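Handout, section B. The chain below has 285 residues.
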Amino acid sequence: MINAIFLKHELEIGEIENLTPGTNAVFRINDKVIKIFAPIESGYSTDDDYFIELSALKHANDVRITAPLLVCTGSIDDRYLFRYIIMDFIHGQDAEHKLELYNTIQKSNFAHKLNKITEKLNAKVTQSKIPLFDLNSCLESSRWGEFSDSFCKDRNAFIRSKTFSDFVYTHGDLTGENMIIDDNDDIYIIDFADSRIAPHYYEWPPIIFALFGCNPTMMEAYFGDFHNDEFYKMVTLSLVIHEFGSNILQQICALEGISLHTITDISYLKALLIKSIESGKMKVR
């Protein structure tokens, strides 16, 4: 099927190599990457993923950030309908492993570069298939069901008390696995399937806890002086509205050795986040 797709687009056929596994199939052929989206008969509904990733990748190319260049897209009917995206292959190493080799100066430079990338990325987007942050869906999310009733009620009240505006494009999952660093230390953003149109701080939880691991050098290079109450209010809000916020918080609790039900309200959560971030070493996966 891959050979047929490449012939259709007059691309050079070569050895097919497996790349990062996931719900969708991703392969490298020469200097190209093809991402094939599972058909509906597989039990996965991936049409939304396809259109989200396509819109987001086009946005990334439009604002000229370092991301894979979109080569072509389409679908092929091979008994089942398979949609696909073909991009340029990025030579490098994922940031998760590259950062482990970096010294303090290199980590600071990395975070500073990422700040410049997200400044471009977090721009207004019109006429796209990227989902808009939806307040009702956020409030009704079942992902927070493992936390105490008192916390869930306070979370909802806290979110309802806020005004959400200035929506921009957000990648939504800026972790070390979703960045490639090349030999020139340039950062390439990949995997746009979790993109959202949301407040810019929606971007923060994966960056702080999964990518930086609260490392103070990277935190300061990206956020500037973050040791203030206003910053921690924003971090708290960003976590409780993020699609993966409950998962991140569960991991924080596990690393801190506390029960989920210990968190009774937003004030407790904020204090926990301050403690975790100020420790300089709270890393989730």
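Note. Strands lie at 16-18, 25-29, 32-37, 70-78, 80-88, 93-94, 168-170, 179-181, 187-189, 196-198. Compare this with the example in section A.
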